Amino acid sequence: MKLFFRRFGRIGDQPLVILHGLFGISDNWATFGKRIADEGFDVIIPDQRNHGLSPHSPVFNYLALTDDLGELLDDQQIVNPILLGHSMGGKVAMRYTLENPDVVNRLIVVDIALRGYGTRPHHRNILDAMLAIDPALFPTRTAIEAELTKKVSEQRIRQFLLKNLHRNDDNVLEWRLNLTGLSENLSQMFDAIETGKIFYKPALFIRGGQSDYILPSDYPEIRKSFPNAEIITIENASHWVHAEAPEQFFLLSSGFLTGTPDWLSSVNE
Known about the structure:
Layout: E1 5-8, E2 14-19, H1 30-37, E3 41-46, H2 62-75, E4 82-86, H3 88-99, E5 106-110, H4 121-131, H5 141-148, H6 155-162, E6 165-167, E7 173-175, H7 179-185, E8 203-208, H8 219-225, E9 229-234, H9 241-244, H10 246-258, H11 263-268
Parallel strand pairs: 2-3, 2-4, 4-5, 5-8, 8-9
Antiparallel strand pairs: 1-3, 6-7
Helix pairs in contact: 2-3, 4-7
């Protein structure tokens, strides 16, 4: 599948591919992408299938998402990439890295582990809330948010979801997400990544201290597949670490990516 992507920085610099999470879009990472590009990176941020401006498909699983990433790297002739992925994007990044350990330069995974997660009612509730709303029947985003409030109480989550709205050629609001495709395949987004392979190059796992997506019980499995992984906690952040602690997240990421001396100690001071 040919993915839409945003690109920042200079082609020829070290490539860095950033993969958003479920319900996300490439624009969620644009501010970070522009800033890290100034550190000497060619930043590529795709919309994953069924998200943003990328094509829709009834097939939605980690095999397909990983194949999409491989096709993007091949099409753009991206060599020796660094991969950074959040949540669903982190699982795609881990799977691709473990399947292609000689291809990937290094890896950053944001608040997701290798294990399966079972049923997560929160995600189903979000999807059901969005499926219940026909944006074409509402004049404004504000009106849609008011309707969404009935089932999604957290304003931060509503604002995140509303970034998936756009006006079509008839100036009518609609969701960019393939909600039906996501809904029919949602359970597959909680699958484990199991390859039996090992990535020996540097890896960084950043977890939110208020999140349960990476727990201390996950550390042995992470270090088995990524023996040179650093696992760092940003204490006051939840699953959306990069959005809730952007400065600390940037310092951690840029320090790891650029090899800044003593980057861990400087962040923890």
